[in-house]
Write a structure and sequence with these properties.
Radius of gyration: 19 Å
Shape: globular
Distance between the termini: 14 Å
Helix content: 25-40%
Oligomer: single chain
Order of helices and strands: HEEHEEHEHHHE
Structural class: alpha+beta
Number of helices: 6
Strand order of the largest sheet: 2-1-4-3
Length: 200
Amino acid sequence: MLIGVSSYGWGMKGFIDAQRLRAFLHEHVVSEESQIESMASAYGNVATDLGNGREIWFTKGNVLSSVMASIALPGLFAPVRYNGRWLVDGGLVNPVPVSLCHALGADVVIAVNLNADILGKHLSSRKADLAAEGGAFDGILGTIRNYSSNLFPGNREDSPPGMFDVLASSVNITQDRITRSRMAGDPPDILLEPRLAQIG
């Protein structure tokens, strides 16, 4: 999916303009009126209640609203208001929702864990950034990444990781631990773990 440069912003609610993303999904994927109950196949997704940390399952209601809530990664997207609650990305509480698939009646669950090799990814990419500069967007991320590191004198490699690296790596650690814990208690029949750490 391509998102225009003007979709990015430095507002305090989120880095990516969710309304433009919603319009893109409406135009190319699903209509605003589509309801989960009317879909040809069983469908559900997960969001997190920002107020109490509870897992919210969408198994009925508006498809597009449920998708926007389930992908509202804190910092990138603003939380989504839905039925009086502020919702964010379901990956905070259930990154690989095997339990939801079982609840929907799946006979066989094939899970795809995108977090398999994310630990240390941002710290590794920081070291790579020290050796070579990337494109325009990499430059923006580099600026964020080095915001706090540049406050310290001396060799950049020896200075503490920047704010972006610390936050991203912390989220990755949390997601990895939650994923392992959830799948240990409710394992899928088949688990796919693509190695994606080298992908930006």
